[in-house]
Here is the input.
Amino acid sequence: MTALVAGGGGALGSAVLEALLAARRFAHVKVLATRALGTAMQGLEPVIVDDFGAAPAADAATIADAAVIVYDRERHANGRELAFLRPAPQDLSAQARWLQQRGVRALLVVMPHTPAALPDALKAGLANLDEQAVAAMGFEQLVFVRSAQAPANARAAPWLQRLADGLLAQAQLMVAAPNQPVRASKVARFVAELAAQLGAAPPGTRVAPPELVWQAAQLRDPAPLVEAWLAARELPELSAPQRRW
Here is the structure.
């Protein structure tokens, strides 16, 4: 199978690319670009496009089996990010149709790994109105991955650990673990695992809630959690990670 990423220039998008390549679960990993990449990760195939969302030609070739659209804030770490195509959230429907008409059967739409990294268009809610339209397009697999957020009832189990957490937070002005932002690399591993397992899952439209994304980011290996969620089995109990002191 072939995977394609749109939005590979941001912090989360580049992490998703790395996770897909490192997992070696796809024969080919592609990324949409606006121009040739001066340097690229080993095994990464850039696909140069002029208009992501334009109607394809009648003989448009299959571009990928699974696609991941990552909406993320633009970063300016170096000039290489400018070569990656940056999808606009308000064009979600056109982008999904563009991918579907090029053979994509499984689509993942990924929000930034933290709510603070939401692009302005998503903060305004522009893309939310298009989700129902995308769901009606008939993808075999469609997953909307929300920004990670700890569940309200996630607490460290032992009372002594909870006491230690409170004392440390007051003494050192530390942010409680559930409120700390998750790492982009952790969410990217969850997204890559989702993309790899979707082919064997029952077809349908799913929404990965913020609590599920947060829980996956706490695990060394998100594969069992992803498998249970896709199979609609009971998930492991949510709990806050213990702080070492």
About this structure: The radius of gyration is 19 Å. The chain is about 30% helix and 15% strand. The beta strands are 2-6, 28-33, 44-48, 66-70, 106-110, 141-145, 204-208.
